[in-house]
Amino acid sequence: MLNTKLRNQTCGHLRAEHVGQTVTLCGWVHALRNFGGAKFMVLRDRYGITQVTIGPESPEAARKIAEDLRDEWVVTVTGKVIARPDGQSNPDMATGEIEVITESLEVLNPSETPPFTPSQVDELPNEDMRLKYRYIDLRRQPMQDSLILRHRIIKAMRDYFDDQQFIEVETPILGRSTPEGARDYLVPSRVHAGEFYALPQSPQIYKQIMMVAGYDRYIQVARCFRDEDLRADRQPEFTQLDMEMSFVETDDVLGMIDGLMKHLAKTILGIDLQIPLPRMTYDEAMQRYGHDAPDLRFGMELIDCTDLAGKCEFRVFRAVADGGNFVRAINAKGVAGDFSRKRISQLETYVKEDFGAKGLAWMRVEEDGALGGPIAKNFSAELLEEFRVRLDATPGDLVLFIADSWEVSCKALNGLRKRLGAELELYDPQDMNFSWIVEFPMFDYDEEQDGWNAMHHPFTAPRDQDLAGLKDTPGEARAKAYDLVINGYEAGGGTIRIHDNEVQQMVFGLLGLDEATARDRFGFLLDALQFGAPPHGGIALGVDRVAMIFGGLDNIRDCIAFPKTQRAMDLMTGAPSPVDGVQLEELHIGLKEGEKEPESE
RNA sequence: GGCGCUGUAGCUCAAUUGGUUAGAGUACCGGACUGUCGAUCCGGUGGUUGCGGGUUCGAGUCCCGUCAGCGUCGCCA
After folding, report:
1. Residue A568, CA: closest nucleotide via C1'?
2. Residue A337 to residue A314: CA distance in whole angstroms
3. Distance of C1' in B23 from CA in A569, Å
4. A155 Cβ nearer than 7 Å to chain B strand
5. Distance CA A331, CA A295 (A)
């Protein structure tokens, strides 16, 4: 039912079967081809494009109007659908078998000359241009496709959860600031001088309270806000499919999301996904890939050579191994010939500058299978043989070593692995790989503050077997926490929550939150946990990221209608902006000297 | 906050590495044209080379600062 008072067809619909009908179309002028006596106009709306002809048989008035038409004017055409003449149909166009002969033509609204035209496919304007004129950019087919894909993903998610008896509940946008985690976006209160709301970083606490309230299956398509620096896959405001269930263990949550992913893969991509999705522990992921969200579309795993390094005379390796650090490597199979010393030194610069590695050692495998390269002379023949076996080194391989702390070796080798995987095309970009990373550490140690931080959030439950040792060896404790990883992106993450107040207090204690502070910040949750909290847990999926990955995009902005720049600006509206002094006064806010002055009237 | 890339006509890019009048495609304006689908052909307008400073006989090009966009590290689940 796309008919309106102004149109009775859309520009994507007409086929040979409609020949003979008289139709009225509305849309934007997508392209004009003018032959004097005959003119072709391609008309575009959300549904497609249709060729319209204005020829000698068209009324004088229509021909006159057609003289003045320009790209992106909004027009309406009424005319008869005809089969295109022999040899003139266009197989590249969905509506290419037909065209509409103009009987009347009306300009609904002319357009200024657009800064760029949506019909142009090969030359994309710079991104600041696209963001400033977002309404033009959004007319482009790829942008339409990705917003429609995003819509279909969200709808498929809602449908799936609806089938599973989940209900969607909206939680507040104006909430309470919690210093945990990311920086908050703050909203000043007019009524309460000097006090602020915070925009939610996620609906975490509300959804747990919904569980206490007995709504045992909750979802929400929730907008979240984090005032941190941006990346290609991060925006300051983003959308989560937030989910929480009661009376569950890890397997229940994972199983539910397995089903969702199977449903999404089928309905969105037409792929039959095998479930349950594979699971790997955090420790194994760090060991094998150096990252908690590894791209499993290709191998090139990290190989630990620390024990061998401890036996060699090469001072760099020896010192690292003796000092309790690590010598790990990746083997880039068969590419040694493509890597000049210059190219290798670019990789070295990369690991030094981006990850603080002290250097990059390398070996290449010669024709005869021997390990060569500048450092090889420091190793005995026997030891080289051990390396060769360990590294599965065959002629033509390039082996890259990082000798450093565990953390740096993880980061640098993960960086190299990702970079080489892409450069060497070790995987098909069309491939989709879904997996779970599970059993994250409960805490990580903060050197600066000399204390433990919650790796996920402070409501995460430890594994049952780690409960006893939680106090004494918090660094060993693993959590009932899980991340969904798709193609090397963290697509979502969640945990089973602590529903026991005693355990919760213990965790707060380990995090250095004394009772008074904990009460002050989370008192309402602690109260709630004492009024009959069921065992519960859940997950939040990054909707923008899922849309990006499913759409085969490499940045999140291309599946968001109105995204912000790296400096969190909206180039179309000019947000953020100074505000009137009166507004500030009402909010009890004064600006520091020298900072941006309010706009005067 | 650090590192890197980019910024030249409305748009996308070029300019022989410091050389004299900054070009091309497209868009735009005018004209021709009855079967195009990136239409074609003829003619034309259009530039404070992001901004500010410096070096130089001479700067789009080199240096410093600054603004903006992107990528990335830190940061962030």
Report:
1. B69
2. 25
3. 35
4. no
5. 16
**Cβ contact A249 with chain B strand, < 7 A:** no
Q: Report the distance separating Cα A122 and Cα A113, nearest Å.
A: 19
**Measured torsion, CA atoms of residues A362, A364, A370, A373, in degrees rounded to the nearest 10:** -60
- The predicted model gives A546-561 an average pLDDT of 96
Summarize chain A as % helix, strand, coil (round to 5): 30, 25, 45
- CA atom of A512 to C1′ atom of B19, Å: 69
Nucleotide nearest A353, from its CA to each C1' = B3
Contact partners, residue A201, CB within 8 Å, separation at least 6: A178, A181, A182, A184, A224, A225, A226
Nucleotides of B under 7 A from a protein CB: 1-3, 10-13, 25-29, 32-40, 68-77
**pLDDT 10s digits, A177-194:** 987 789 999 999 999 999
Q: Does strand B come within 7 Å of the CB of A36?
A: yes
**Window from A66-75, A253-262, A369-378, A462-471 with minimum mean pLDDT:** A369-378
Closest CA to A327 of A266, A251, A390, A243: A390
Is strand B within 7 Å of residue A122 (CB)? yes
pLDDT value at A571 more than 80? yes
H-state helical runs in A468-580: 501-510, 515-529, 543-550
Model confidence pTM above 0.90: yes
Q: Is A349 within 7 A of strand B by CB distance?
A: no
What is the token pair recorded at A195? 């006090």
E-strand spans in A527-584? Answer: 536-542
Could you give phi then psi for residue A419, rounded to 5 degrees? -65, -45
Instruction: Spell out which residues of A between 162 and 181 contact strand B, using CB within 7 Å.
Output: 180-181
Residue A594: which pLDDT band, with cuts at 50, 70 and 90? low
What kind and span of H or E run contains A136? helix A134-137
Q: What is the pLDDT of residues A529-543, one digit of tens each?
A: 899 999 999 999 999
Q: Please name the residue ranges forming H helices in A392-542.
A: 406-423, 501-510, 515-529
b/e burial code for range A249-281 (CB count within 10 A of at least 16 → b): ebeebbebbbbbbbbbbeebeeeebebebeebe
Chain A residues 468-507 with Cβ under 7 Å of strand B are 481, 483, 490, 493
ipTM: 0.93
Task: Determine the pLDDT at residue A597.
Answer: 54
Rounded Cα gap, residues A451 and A466, in angstroms: 19
Q: How many helices (H) and strands (E) are present in chain A, helices listed first?
A: 16, 22
More confident residue, A415 or A520: A415
